[in-house]
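P.,

For your records, the input lines for the assembly:
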Amino acid sequence: LRPLPRPRVLLKAPTLAEMEEMNLFEDEDSP
Amino acid sequence: PEVSILRKERHCQGMLEYGKEDEANFFRTLITDLKPRGVAVSLTPGLPAYILFMCLRHADYTNNDQRVRTLLNSSITSIKNVLKKRSRDFDTVSFWLANTCRFLHCLKQYSGEEVYTKYNTPQQNKQCLLNFDLTDYRQTLSDLVIQIYQQLIKCMEDLLQPMIVAAMLEQDTIPGVLGLKPTGLRKRTSSSFTLESMLKQLDSFHSTLLQHGNDTELIRQVLKQQFYVICATTLNNLLLRKDMCSWSKGLQIRYNVSQLEEWLMDKGVQGGGVRETLEPLIQAAQLLQIKKKNQEDAEAIATMCTALTATQIEKILNLYTPVNEFEERVSASFMKSVQALLKDRQESPQLLMDSKVLFPFSFPFNPSPVALESLQIPQSLNLSFLMR
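Structure tokens returned:
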């Protein structure tokens, strides 16, 4: 018998809007 | 001199690792500073996506949730930032569309979910993620793909738009028709764009999209969108310009459209509704060429012009201008016959086509046959700190 796979941990992802709010994206005009 | 010792790879498992100290360098080198036209990236389309995924596999394999998060968050922010900085550069946008899509496909292909793994080789199935479920990240990446797609469409439109009217309407290329313009209406264009230059631009779009490894279905949708814009822009211009509504112009337009149709056939993308986007323009060209005298002609127009609205048909007939003694202006009684035949049509009374329409876009799952363990990373990518 094959061992049952371990349940995987669901990693919560930020949405693009949340990332934008966190100021992770640079301004278009920045060098 | 330094002697390099080649390590024999006996058992590469399709994973890559980097030290914590190389983290910032990794994202800068692989994403921020990467040139989409370099030799290193054109050898294996989607290579940056595979490298990212192989690093992700190692982080998953070692159960390092912090590194998995960093890899995904930093990849997304770095890609977003490249696209913000080079928002108008078609090459960059096409390149990151292909790679973001490929990265997303990899997350699915190696998810262990049956629906995505059924086409995998046994070796690929052994390489599925072990510790983390990244379904949530797939959603964020899908949103990113949609944003990049919309940016790509905008980039292409910005390049195509200035060419369309000159190439499709103003330039005369059929010998013998050249001299038939009404007096006073000759040489209104000063633009140097020709149909040939527009087809070259389309060629360049197509070959770049392919070279970067964009999925064929996605390329088809991109082209459908551009062909719609070509049709809408040309038709709208025709509807506003009397000098474009003549028999000879109809012939020229039909010839130009047939060149576009031929281009689609050459590239093998005529299906899936791409060619159909040109239909209103084809019918407008036919309307200019068809006989416009008796009841039978009116019926033929009403039957043929299904992709044009009644408002557009009437406008073209009203604008129709004879350029020689063999052609005649459309009579008032003929206009009435056509109007009577079209009066029951249920459609928008708007004259112009909406050139801002964005067709719904989908990017179906497309697993890759690439064996991760066999991928070679070219030296020119400057990623020698990555360990297999």
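Two observations worth noting. The helical segments of chain A are 16-21. The first strand of chain A starts at residue 9 and ends at 10.

Regards
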